[in-house]
Amino acid sequence: MREAEKPNDNSATSYEPPRGAYFWLAGIFAIVFAVIYITLVLFVHFVSPGKGIFGMNDTEAYTLYVFVFAFFLVALYVYMVVSRKELLFSLKRAGALMAIFTFVVVVNIVVVAFNPYLICVALTSMLVLPFSKRSDAFVLNAFSCWISSFVLIATLDYSQFPAVAFTLLAGMICGAVATYSFPSDMTRAVSVLRSFVTGVVTLLVYGVLLSTYKLDFKPFFDNVMYIGFSVAGELLLTAVIEPIIEWIFNLTSDYKLMELTNHKAPLIRRLSTEAPGTFNHCLAVANFAEICADAIGEDTYLARACAYYHDVGKLNNVEYFTENQAGYNPHDEILPEVSAEIIRKHTVDGYELCKKYRIPEEVARVTIEHHGTLPIMYFFNKAKSLTDGDVDMDEYRYYGEIPTGKIGAIIMICDSAEAAIRAMDNPTGEKVDKLLRGMIDERLKLGQFDNCEITMKDLTAIREAIVGAFGGLFHKRIKYNIGRGGINV
Question: Which of 155, 191, 303, 379 has the fewest beta carbons under 10 Å from its own?
């Protein structure tokens, strides 16, 4: 993400990735092609147990590998640039997904030397799902199984043809089970259960295939041990590789997001001790954001994490923000342009702090998006009242970018809503609804949602979710009578 030091033009922005992103993604695929091709060539040359079903010589085989791998990877590239265009805005995530894909294919090429039934038919989906959408997990798993099946065809004899059929069939079925059979909100227990269920399905698929191919239980008992090793290996590799991918690429998973929202996380601990008012504001925004994300089908863990960190930039000037003040307001003693500079800079400061603490980009980006390019009207109006000349509104806009995703839009709305509702006298559901309608309409007119795919239906659901949550988050406490003997209820 480029450094944001000047407010962007808030006119409508094309939701098209930069052209260079297509070339960078093509470069990633070229590296994947090279790694897989070299691995297979070395395997065929030094280790391969047979000449392959096609019975070709080395030159013919190597040429065929080029065309087949190119076909599969071009098809996968087209899938990404057409159906998953948002990955072009996050090449780091695309690189992580392709690194997982390459790792699984290379592992499958290597294990063929020991036994073809050791191939991991669902490992790709298990590794991809925590970091991306279900569709990505299923598609990448399917492609890894197709390539692995081709490896079997290219290296095994006719007698091992059932292994090819097993890899294709089990890959599609078990990939679907691992991807779609459990909720996306994964806990450690659910992750283990998913692996166990996928393993059972793998054995069932093999049993069905064997009974169809040949009614002989001896091959089943000969190979079931290897399939069991493969299933156990998938579980072990998932537990080991997932945190490594998370750390190398600084990506988010449900586990990572839960760690980020732990109050003992370093930056959250600083916020709670150095800026308790801002910390409590972030907790309230997080409650709103989680409810809103659930209402429109977005990641609730990510919404909560973004809300926790959206105002960390205030740590650089704690006393200049109202929620941290105790009677004394330093803005009363300085010029409005100086005040505006301090206030609007907290978005950039927040992003820099997140980078310093290695907060994932998905969360860090919201620090610089939650005010977009909105003007700070209080200090703009104060400046106008102190001068007879014109005041440039651009000098009073936040340093930031308009939201690029629905979560950013949610935080923008919930941040302003929480502060405005708390400042209202005798708020009611009707008043809150009217406030939110005006707030959302204003941001639409100022183009703050032009660069994300949020719809009017989503905005309505967000507004209704906040109004529905308002009563529980801002309920009135009963007043206690304090007498000499203590509190009398």
Answer: 191
